[in-house]
Design a protein that fits this description.
The protein is about 70% helix and about 0% strand. By secondary structure, it is mainly α.
């Protein structure tokens, strides 16, 4: 495993890239917090992930808690994503940054729609697959 990137490290890298993007490219967010960055990207996060709008605030809270746990060593916090969930969240954040950059250079909407669909399929498909694997139902036979 030496030299390989852990899911938690990948997650912290993705959070840093997302925060950097927001500070550079979203007006008036230079000194804002992660919670503000996530709220400013609410529509895109919902579109790319397919999460329910009613779950958005809890989802963001868990992202922030996970960031605090891994970056600030807030080990008392137990409202964090699992190791595999960190991987999905890091993919989502990476896609979000790329998606926003593509919007800024005015990529046609049909291409953006294709990215939205693919991101949603990937995000939800990987989670579903890993839930099935974690149940180990195929090993019980």
């Amino acid at each position: 495993m030496e030299g390989q990137l852990t899911h938690s490290k990948r997650f912290t890298n993705s959070i840093s890239a997302f925060e950097g993007y927001c500070k550079l490219y979203i007006d008036d967010l230079t000194h804002s917090k992660l919670s503000t960055f996530l709220k400013k990207n609410k529509q895109e996060i919902i579109e790319l992930s397919g999460i329910e709008e009613g779950y958005f605030n809890r989802f963001c809270s868990k992202i922030i808690s996970s960031r605090d746990y891994y970056v600030h060593a807030n080990i008392k916090n137990n409202n964090i994503f699992s190791d595999f969930e960190l991987l999905y969240i890091s993919f989502l954040l990476d896609i979000l940054v790329a998606f926003n950059l593509l919007k800024q250079i005015e990529v046609p909407q049909d291409i953006l729609d294709m990215i939205i669909n693919r991101a949603r399929e990937t995000y939800n498909g990987m989670q579903s697959f890993n839930r099935e694997l974690s149940q180990d139902t195929f090993l019980d036979h």
